Amino acid sequence: MESIVFGIGITALTGALATVAGAAEDTESNIGSQGDPNSQVQLAPQMGYLHRIFNKAIAGEPPAYGLWCALGAGLAWAFMAMQLNAVLAIVLGCVLAVFVQGVYSTTAYLGRTASLKKFGQPVFVDILKSMTTVTMAHAFIAIFCTVTLCYLMNAALGHPFPLPLLGLLWGIALGAAGSAVGNPYYGKERQYQNQKFGAGVPIAQSGNIVRYAEAGERNSLDNGFFTAKLGGPASGVCFGLIVFLELWRTILFEKIGAGWGAIIVGILIILIFTIIDRSIEVWARKTYGPYAVPTKEASS
Amino acid sequence: MTVKIEVIAGGIPHTKIMVGGIIASLVCLYLSYLNVVTGTEMFSFFGGLAVVAALIWGSNTIKVLCSYGIGTGVPSAGMIAFGSGVIAMLLATKFGIAAPIVTLVLAAVVGLILGYLSNEVLNMKIPAMVQSLTELAVVGAFTLMGFAVLMTGGFTFAALTAGSVTIMGLSLPSYQVSFIGGSLIATAFMLGALAVQHPFNACLGPGWTQDRMLMLAAECGFLSMFVAAIMSFALITTGSALISLVVALVGWGYTYMQYIGLSKRDAASWLDAKPIPDVEGH
């Protein structure tokens, strides 16, 4: 009984860490215009819309965060193998992983922007300086929380995988959660605020992203400020739920039926979420009008 | 249907880079065998140099492959390179001193099969596919082997799985504190997979230039070598790891400054805290 209570406590802690990690990850990737909204930021100068938005295309978020978290975890593992204190080892590992993230961000921005010479898109050095540091700060929070939750799984819950492998797996999961939940909010709600709500992106409007603010010109910090309100927390809840439910079902039901209990509960959770998702979709279509047939107003 | 989006104009021909990449990686991997000959771990940094050589070659291969509309993003090419390379590399470590050569052959076979499957069975019909996937598998395998040498000092299976843990000043052999047992291979996998795709992914566009991309590839290689060298402190002697660290830092600093210089050369303009410039018609 005591071990189950201990396990549930660790589960709650990892869930909380994952929530913070998800929120920080989404804000980081939105400030960097990483993930699928990147295509419009990349396209904008080619359509004549020069902008002051940070464009760090490193990879999709899942592979990128797979690397940052695997690297943080690998370095932390190495420091612990050198008999360093676990807390210090994780912090040092994450600092070095964030250094790599920062270097990748600068080279990505410089490379993409220099290749747009033909369209006159300049390299803004101030953007490079101010955005890179802000993304690094958010990335540190995301990586640190993820590596810590991996360490808790490994050391406190006795997960058989070594730390770097756990870092790789949960890093990819973190990137996927931030990419799937947070990106639509940034890509559709933010970059196309000057379009009619729900109008999609007609070809004529490709690349016509929001570039000007109430006063002056927008940069990516404004985008991070905007998406930190809803997109970030939503990604955090998504990743937090993934981590929490995954560990919760393992801790409580693993003893039943030689491990089959946890598997059956996992399938049940998937079914429950499928039903919830479907009913929300049906409700949204009923409430906000037909999905496929455009009305006269929408097409005008 | 295959539509070639961009053509390779100017620069060093791909065949030359490929031959240079194979020779440089193989020579560097074999130079690390000096560790065994001299009984030290001082020559582990040659593994990192093999990584840099393989990544430069790999980034140009990705450029050749992704110039065709392959229907996926550039990062996927890096993933398949290492996914196919890791099999060949792990199997080849069982062959002792012949491991680098066996890696080359095995990875080429794996890549050839994958290229054949994607072109003929999945019917992608992309002209550069078979050759590129073959090359990428070898790049992936060489890079992983280079990281293994850098972190453990050897490329044999025994070196990759043996480690020691020090408890109260007593050194005990431990499988868990090793390149494979500690899953450092997972970190090496991701380090390489992102480093091989990043140069082309970052530099693509109408203003792509080869020297800038290859310089970025070298920069990514040295940056990965830098963090791998820090991890190597856990597995090899401090002095040897320090040599790797210094080599990586010097190489990274030089290539990073060069890359910034090349970006400055290629960029439309280089502005600091200036508004968006006016473009005609907008």
Explain what the structure shows.
- The complex is a heterodimer of chains A (300) and B (282).
- With 300 residues, chain A is mainly alpha-helical.
- In chain A, 69% of the residues lie in helices and 1% in strands.
- Chain A has helices spanning 2-31, 38-43, 61-81, 86-114, 125-155, 163-190, 220-227, 231-253, 260-287, 296-299; one strand at residues 123-124.
- The radius of gyration of chain A is 21 Å and the shape is flat.
- A two-stranded antiparallel sheet of chain B has the order 1-2.
- With 282 residues, chain B is mainly alpha-helical.
- Chain B has one domain (14-266).
- In chain B, a hairpin with a 2-residue loop joins strand 1 and strand 2.
- At the A-B interface, helix 3, helix 4, strand 1 and helix 6 of A face helix 4, strand 1, helix 8, helix 9 and helix 10 of B.
Attribute tags:
heterodimer; A: 300 residues; mainly alpha; 10 helices; 69% helix; B: 282 residues; 67% helix; disordered N terminus
Q: How is the quaternary structure best described?
A: heterodimer
- Structural class by secondary-structure content of chain B: mainly alpha
Q: Tell me the overall shape of chain A.
A: flat
User: What is the number of beta strands of chain A?
Assistant: 1
Could you describe the largest sheet of chain A, including whether it forms a barrel? none
Compute the gyration radius of chain B: what is it? 20 Å
Which overall shape of chain B is indicated by the principal axes computed on the Cα atoms? Answer: globular
Percent range of helical residues of chain A? 55-70%
A few lines on this structure:
Chain A contains ten helices and one strand. By secondary structure, chain A is mainly alpha-helical.
